[in-house]
User: Fold this.
Amino acid sequence: MKYLIDPMDLTTQEVRGILQLAHEIMEDPKKYAHKCEGKKLATLFFEPSTRTRLSFEAAMLELGGSVIGFSSADSSSAAKGENVADTVRVVQCYADIIVMRHPKEGSAKAAAMNLEIPFINAGDGGHQHPTQTLTDLLSIESIKGRLDHLSIGLCGDLMFGRTVHSLIRAMMRYQDIKFTLISPEELHLPNYLLKEMKQNGVPYVETRQLEGAIDNLDILYMTRVQKERFFNEADYLRLRDSCILDSKKLSSARPDMIILHPLPRVNEIPNEIDKDPRACYFKQVLYGKYVRMALILTMLGESEC
Ligand code: NCD
Assistant:
């Protein structure tokens, strides 16, 4: 596997292999502690990140490898006008695998085009975020015990939320998946994804409010309104409070529903919800490290034990 730009770059068998390996790593992490000795991971982050960058770096370090990289565009030659294709082409002389996040949709594809080493998209603008999706899949499988027969509510900024876009594409391939899309009209899911769901016969309903939509869900996937993708502050301020989960709304949810969130949260989940046993978003963070360990091993061809 040379690159991962969109969740559809992985077949369902490849996803299965990565999740299986992540489960094995979780059971016995020590067994994998030297697998990537002598290998380097480069993290090229042109956009802010806490979890994605640090979980990739922690993953590589726990595999015995090392990491190089930068965490903002200002500290790279992008500030001098270099394009991403040139930047990654240079970095491949120093590293064995590249992880890149960039604010422009399509930048990951442009960057990966002429590369000789494995490349992972860690988020390209409001487009896709396939490794958050692997994190979400591992979380769902570990907590719910399955990836099929699920009713999934996606709530918040469905227009710009790349984690939602990637999760829909990945989950659409499993049996008996239903989506409830909860967002204000202005932040509805992009039409190309609505079309893909229709073409694949995946049932969905669109609604504006959590009330009434939450009652029969297996999973509620909350997202923040993506401030950085708005053209003007007034629109952001008007929309940012449109989908907030609170204890009252949560009281009509099923006792076995789980709440996921890629994080960071802003105000869409108040802290009081954190102690509810259904709140799984901090557990989800840890799954992110293990699944990235599995992905690095798979992409470097080091996954055999
Ligand atoms: C997400 C992202 O960057 O798209 N964060 C993450 O990687 N965990 C979600 C977000 O920023 O809202």
In short: The mean pLDDT is 96. DSSP finds ten helices and ten strands in the chain. The pocket of N-carbamoyl-L-aspartate is lined by residues 51-52, 123, 129, 132, 162-163, 223-224, 262-263 (CB under 6 Å).
